[in-house]
């Protein structure tokens, strides 16, 4: 943990920046959930957030009300910032990933705001 600056985490994953990155690379955020790691820019985080919102909204209608495995069923396809890659996720995983990405963006914006004010 000494090599990273944690940004946000929940029970499903963590987002951080590497301390060893050069200043030109420090605008990227490492997001890790399940067994997946994504290194994303701010614009990629925003795009991913929109993809997650679409998946969550569209996934509500696809939940089988009488299904006993709906918590673990990975029947939703979540698009990623890498257009060639999509993730198979459950509805609950999509909710957790949404929290991770939105919490990360909130913290980055908050840090940026306080940095502009000269408050650390």
List strands and helices in order, with pairings.
Elements lengths: L3 E6 L3 E6 L10 E5 L2 E5 L1 H19 L15 E4 L6 E4 L1 H27 L3
Antiparallel strand pairs: 1-2, 2-3, 3-4, 5-6
Helix pairs in contact: 1-2
What does this structure look like?
The chain is an alpha+beta fold. It has helices spanning 42-60, 91-117, and strands spanning 4-9, 13-18, 29-33, 36-40, 76-79, 86-89. Helix 1 (42-60) packs antiparallel against helix 2 (91-117). It has one domain. The model has no long low-confidence stretch (mean pLDDT 86). The longest helix is centred in the C-terminal third of the chain and has 27 residues, at 91-117. Strand 5 (76-79) and strand 6 (86-89) form a beta hairpin. The chain is built from two helices and six strands. It has a four-stranded antiparallel sheet with strand order 1-2-3-4. Strands 5-6 form a two-stranded antiparallel sheet.
